[in-house]
Amino acid sequence: LPGVVAAKCGAHVILSDSAELPLCLRNCRRSCDINNLPNVPVIGLTWGQVSPELLSLPAVDIILGSDVFYEPE
Question: Which InterPro entries does this entry report, sorted A to Z (predicted)?
Answer without folding.
Answer: Methyltransf_16, SAM-dependent_MTases_sf
